[in-house]
Amino acid sequence: MGLPADVRQQLTQVELKSLCREQLAALFGNEATTPQAELLQDWAIEPCTATAQDNSFSAHHAAAPPNQTATGAWRHRITGIGSEWSVEFPGYIAGAIDAASVGVQALLNRQSSNLPP
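Given the sequence above, the corresponding structure tokens read:
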């Protein structure tokens, strides 16, 4: 949601949901301010999902790996296509689309070169 974990933890669920509705209204119009249901899950407060170090970072997403193609035993067997693998937009929906496009192109290139998928 664009707020660091420590900032989110200082806000109530009501405040967080209100901020979400404001953002949705800016994107989709005033009708988005009255959803049928609201569910908010902050994974940063889940002890089995996040660590103290996860919560100490800013709102910026992690840098992408140097390339999407694995090396070593995984070379030509696995390609990262999640948003975190995007060089330009890691951690965002645009990054997932970018990484998927690059990953599919890499797969097609391997197929046309008769390399293992």
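The mean pLDDT is 82. Try to locate this feature in the token string yourself.
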